[in-house]
Amino acid sequence: MLGNALEVEDLSVEVGGAAVLHHLSFAVPRGSALAVIGPNGAGKTVLFRALIGALPSRGVVRWAPGTRIGYVPQKLDIDRDLPLTGTNFLRSKAAVTGAGREDVRRALAEVNLPQRIAERPIGALSGGQFQRLLLAFALVGRPNALLFDEPTAGVDEPGEERLYEMIRRVQGLEHLTLLLISHELSLVQRFADNVLCLSGEAPWFGPPDEVLTPERIERAYGTPLRYHHHKT
Amino acid sequence: MAVAAGLVGCFAVMRRMALASDAMSHVALPGIGLALAFHVHPLLGGVAALAAGTALVWGLQRGTRISTETVIGVVFSLALAMGSMLTTGEELIDALLGTPGSLGVGELVAGLAGVTAVAGFVLLQRNELVLAQVSTDMARTAGVGVARVELLYLLAFSLTVALGLRFLGVLLMGSLIIIPAATAKLVARSLDEMLAVAVVSAVASTVLGEAVAVRIGRPTGPVIIAIAAGLFFLSLPLRRTR
After folding, report:
1. Does domain B2-236 have CATH number 1.10.3470.10?
2. Contact check, Cβ <8 Å, A83/B190
C-alpha cells in the first residue's frame, strides 16, 4: 500500500448476470491522476461504482487507510427543475460529513463559483456552472481522493479545457488522488499521469505515452480516433 | 396529519414517485378488510398492512433492483384489488374515502405522536434525504446509510398515510401527500421554501376543507382534496421561472 492511494487486484464485476470487468488489476499512486478511457459499454462507470462499493464485485479493492472519497457521477437521478439550490446541495453534504459552512465557502472559492450563483436553483445553472458545483460538492468534507465520471458532460468545447485545468489546479491545491473517466483523449494526454484503457480485450494501464498510441486506440475503440498529442 | 403530509410529500415529488405514492396508500385496504373481519379496530389493520407493504417494497427494491415506482405500482395495485375483495358495502366506501367525525382521546394522542415522529424524521434527516434522492452513489460516498434512510422514509410515508386514513381514506390520503408538494415544487426556489409551502398548502386545504364540507354538507375528504387541487391550479401563474 506504501505510496498508493488505491490498489485493485483481480477485480471482476457482473451487472445483470453479464460480466463487465474481468480480472482487472492496477494501482493509483497517492496524489496522481488516473484517466479511465474506453468505448461506451466498456465498464468505466461500473468500475467507479465498484470502487465506491455501490456494486458487488469479486477481487480486491484496497483504499489507503484514512481515504475520504469525493465522487461525482455522470448524471444525477433528479429533475433539474427541483427547487433545490446549489447551496442546499452543498450544505446537505457539509451537514452529513460534519464539515462546516466555512468548508462550503472554501469549496465554492476553489472552483471559482460565486456564492450568488450557488444560491440559484440547480436548474438555473449553465452546464459549466453545474459541473463546477458538482466539483465543489465533491470537495466538501475535505476528501483526499476524487472520482469524477465524465467531468465535461454538458460543457461546451472551450469550457472543457478550463474545467480540466481547474480540476488539476484543485488536485494540486488539495493534494488529491484523482480518478476520472473521460472521452477527451487530448486532455487525458495532457492531464493524466496514468491511463487505464478498458475495452473488450485485455485492459491497458500505464503512462499516457504508452497507452494512447494510435494502434491501441484503434484496437480499443474499433476505429482510428483523432486527438491532439501535446508534447511537454 | 396535514403537516406530515406536506413534509413527506416534498421528498416523494423529488423522487418522481407522485403516482406511485398514491398507489402506496392503497395497501392499507386489505389490512382494514381483515381487521373488520376479525373485529379489530380498522386503523390497526391499516397500519399493520402499511408496515408490511413498506417492508415488502424495500426488500423487493433491494433484492431485484427494480425501481421503487414499478414495485409500488404492482404491489399496491394488487393490495387495492385484494382489499376490495375483503371489504364490502359501506365499510368499503368508508375505507376508501374516510369518515367524518371527531377523534377520540386515544386517536388524538396516537395522531400527535405520529405527526411528531414523521416531522422529526424529515426535519432531522433532511440532508441525508436530499443526498440519497439526488444520487445514491454520492450519498454513499458522503457516508449516508442509503438503505437505512430509504427504509425510514418509506416507513414515514406509510405512517403519514395511516394518520390520514380515518378522514381521507386510502384513496385520498395519497393525494394530500402529493398535491401540496407538487404546488410547492411549482413556486418554491429552495428546499426550505418547498417544505414550508407544502406544509402551509396541506394545512390550509385541510382546515378550509373541513369548514366548507360542513357548510355544504358533503364528505370532508373529497372537499379537502378538491381545495388542494384548486391551490395547485391557482399557483400555476406563480410558477417559478429560472
Report:
1. yes
2. yes
